[in-house]
Specification:
The complex is a heterodimer of chains A (465) and B (255). Chain A is built from 19 helices and no strands. The relative contact order of chain A is 0.10. In chain A, helix 11 packs across helix 14. Chain A folds into two domains: 237 residues; 138 residues, Fumarate Reductase Iron-sulfur Protein, Chain B, domain 2, CATH 1.10.1060. In chain A, 59% of the residues lie in helices and 0% in strands. By secondary structure, chain B is α/β, with parallel strands linked by helices. Chain B folds into two domains: 120 residues, 3-Layer(aba) Sandwich (Rossmann fold); 125 residues, Rossmann fold (3-Layer(aba) Sandwich). Helices cover 44% and strands 11% of the residues of chain B. In chain B, the strands form two sheets. Chain B has a four-stranded parallel sheet with strand order 2-1-3-4. A four-stranded parallel sheet of chain B has the order 6-5-7-8, sandwiched between helices. In chain B, helix 3 crosses helix 11, helix 7 packs across helix 8 and helix 9 packs across helix 10. Chain B is globular, with a radius of gyration of 18 Å. The chains are: A mainly alpha (465), B alpha/beta (255).
Chain lengths: 465, 255
């Protein structure tokens, strides 16, 4: 009974805390401007299924894709066991699903559904264990360049490693639980649902039926003391597993690992239009139309007040840009293909995305502290305190970062929106661009040329003659 | 275009020359080459001449939406006035802006890049390739421009043309969706580089030289400038040429 009460407190506490954190992130995402989500829902669904669920874009790099797939599939299928753990925790049962599922057999085999399910979890857990070790090695021993860039020092470096260590702990607990339980069953001390006490047998789980006796078998020789210790190991495994899961749930909102949830909405809401189309600015279009006499002066003329164009802060970005930033798992594929970054420029697309998230977090914290409201926010800072002009000016808009992102984030959009703010609202920007703008505006070409535009053709025709 | 309109003739296609094709000495040669190909294939085409202006792409990507809108709305006025339906251009930046950005402003056209257009002419049998080209058996490499390739997904049309030209194509290490930018996009063409270790065009040129190709084929006037500069910086201009696909056809067919 005490276990059940402790369990209920842990679960409700963790979910309650997590819920409040997720609500804050939801609020932060909604600090952004409206975003057009029209367009085919089928295409959106297809993106989500292929890219998030099916991890299509991960497979551009096969080794990390396979490692990631192992962890991902293990995570998905472990949810089945988690359901049982939740049930058992609340109702004080052990392996509640077993007596029901082990009566269902896979057609044409003697394999029952419970053994097969848990065995699958075990096999995938072993794969995930290996993958996690490989991931730790890639980050810390092999020192892959994309994990060593400037923005990957301090917390982001810790974050990446913490998650991996948690995964190792999680998997270790699964095998503690199943392994110790196997030895208990072997010796007739299982307290599983539907197993009579004293009945000797094996669960037959593919990994733990061997690993259990190997690791813990010797304890059974100590009879009662040994059984007592085995029970403790089994409980430590059980509790350790669920507590790590709950820890995960509450840690996610502070972590780049949030991608395991947000990858789904982020791919669903990813733009369906061409990558080549920059978002139109109807305000500017209408203004120019009026100037050119293409439309009548509108009655609701904004007057002398200069409106703000582009984005100076997360308030000027769309909510999708902010969702992008919370979805980012800092893998750095964008930065590793960025031509500016590759040639030593300061720009790193990943840093841009992380900066947007960190700024949104900062604003969220200040709002929660009651310092400002979202509608009336002014802490004297902006995204320009996070992102330098030099970074913005280095972008070639080549879209390599957009192509590289496995969860369809656009690091490019914030860059272009900040450029718009710089040029349109501040009238600043690279000095070299000023004559280019003037030349386009006055001569219709970025170069100042005195020749007629069709001189090349008339010259070519006269040459032929 | 205005002359044809005065005669009441509607050409098959409007050739959008673009600023580079109109004014840049190197790109003018590409414009002439492409015009020769269209003549050879007996395409009736027109240019806007003085009535054409910058699509606004460099202004828009730099952040100057006002200048972009001024150019775009003016061009759309002109194009709609002449009832233009089909446009072909040898510049991927013009191609992208005309195709993807003008519709939101009221300009809807069937826009093709010249590599798509030429590939169509070959397939339809309107352009016959003559054998025995100057490039026969030569080692060449092809550089995907960002705005034709990754942005608009056109990878095959240019490669299909190259197959017709009887040469040995060696792909770059980073090609198609993974292609590396030449360094000119996003209005970088019109400003000094930000501080760094290397220029982007040098990085890309080194990769192209690694293939051992004698000819670097491009599809974009800005890429051609960048890659030509890169080849010069590497002091390889005696051995390696940077050309547009249309120039290869002209030289192969001796037009």
């Amino acid at each position: 009974m005490i276990q059940q009460i402790a369990f209920a407190i842990a679960v409700i506490g963790a979910f309650g805390f997590a819920f409040s954190k997720y609500a804050q992130i939801y609020r932060n995402i909604n600090l952004g401007k409206a975003y057009d989500t029209s367009g085919s829902e089928i295409s959106r669904m297809k993106n989500m299924l292929l890219v998030a669920f099916g991890q299509k874009k991960m497979f551009k790099r096969i080794i990390p894709a396979m490692l990631h797939m192992a962890v991902y599939v293990a995570f998905l299928i472990t949810q089945i066991e988690l359901l049982e753990i939740l049930w058992d925790g609340f109702f004080g049962e052990h392996r509640f699903f077993m007596p029901y599922l082990n009566k269902i057999f896979i057609p044409f085999t003697s394999l029952d559904l419970y053994t097969v399910t848990i065995s699958m979890i075990e096999i995938l857990s072993v794969c995930a264990f290996g993958a996690t070790i490989a991931f730790l090695a890639r980050r810390n021993a092999l020192k892959l360049p994309r994990f060593q860039m400037d923005e990957m020092t301090g917390w982001p470096k810790w974050d990446g490693n913490i998650i991996l260590v948690l995964e190792i702990i999680l998997i270790t607990f699964i095998f503690c639980m199943n392994g110790a339980d196997e030895v208990l069953y072997n010796t007739g001390h299982s307290h599983a649902h539907g197993v009579a006490y004293g009945e000797k047998g094996s669960y037959g789980f593919v990994v733990s039926q061997f690993v259990g006796p190997l690791l813990f078998g010797w304890l059974a020789e100590y009879k009662e003391l040994g059984y007592w210790i085995l029970n403790i190991i089994e409980r430590v495994g059980w509790w350790g597993h669920i507590l790590t899961v709950l820890g995960f749930l509450t840690y996610l909102p502070f972590s780049k690992h949030l991608h395991i949830m947000l990858a789904f909405p982020n791919t669903y809401f990813a733009p369906l239009n061409s990558r080549g189309e920059m978002e139109n600015m109807p305000d500017v279009m209408n203004e120019v139309k009026m100037m050119m006499g293409l439309t009548e002066m509108s009655a609701d003329d904004p007057g002398d007040e200069m409106p703000e164009f582009g984005a100076k802060d997360v308030f000027g970005l769309s909510w999708k840009n902010i969702l992008d930033s919370y979805t980012c798992t800092e893998c750095g594929r964008c930065s590793s293909v960025c031509p500016a970054n590759l040639t030593g420029k300061k720009l790193s697309p990943r840093k841009i995305v992380m900066d947007v998230r960190d700024r949104a977090d900062e604003i969220g914290r200040n709002i929660d502290a009651g310092l400002y409201t979202a509608d009336n926010y002014d802490d004297g800072k902006s995204l320009f305190d996070y992102i330098s002009r030099e970074e913005l000016h280095a972008c070639t808009t080549c879209n390599a970062c957009v192509e590289a992102c496995p969860v369809m984030i656009s690091p490019l959009e914030p860059i272009l929106k900040l450029r718009r703010y710089e040029i349109l609202t501040e009238s600043a920007g690279p000095g070299d661009w000023v004559p280019m703008f003037t030349s386009i505006e006055n001569g219709g070409s970025p170069w100042q040329v005195a020749d007629a535009r069709d001189k090349w053709a008339t010259d070519a025709l006269s040459e032929e003659k | 275009m205005s002359e044809l309109a005065a005669q009441g003739v509607e050409p098959e296609v409007l050739y959008w020359v673009g600023c580079a094709g109109s004014f840049d000495a190197r790109a003018q040669k590409v414009a002439v080459a492409f015009a020769k190909i269209m003549n050879e294939a007996e395409i009736s085409f027109a240019i806007l001449g003085q009535e054409e202006s910058c699509t606004g792409d460099p202004a828009r990507r730099a952040g100057n939406e006002f200048v972009f809108q001024m150019m775009a709305l003016q061009n759309i006025e002109t194009l709609n006035m002449y009832n233009v339906k089909k446009i072909v251009t040898a510049c991927p930046h013009c191609f992208n802006t005309l195709k993807n950005e003008y519709p939101a402003l009221g300009g809807n056209y069937d826009v093709m890049h010249h590599t798509q257009f030429i590939n169509g002419l070959i397939k339809d049998g309107r352009l016959k390739m003559k054998g025995g080209s100057a490039f026969q058996g030569k080692r060449i490499t092809y550089h995907d421009s960002c705005y034709l390739g990754r942005v608009n997904g056109v990878y095959e049309a240019p490669r299909e043309i190259l197959e017709q030209l009887d040469n040995h194509l060696v792909e770059l290490k980073r090609s198609k969706t993974n292609g590396l930018c030449c360094g000119a996009g996003g209005s970088q063409m019109f400003k000094e580089d930000e501080p760094g270790d290397k220029r982007i065009n040098i990085e890309r040129t080194e990769e192209a030289l690694e293939t051992g190709a004698e000819i670097i084929v491009a599809n974009c006037p800005f890429c051609i400038t960048m890659m030509t500069d890169g080849v010069k910086a590497k002091d390889k201009q005696e051995h390696v040429m940077v050309v547009d696909i249309s120039e290869m056809i002209v030289s192969s067919n001796r037009l």
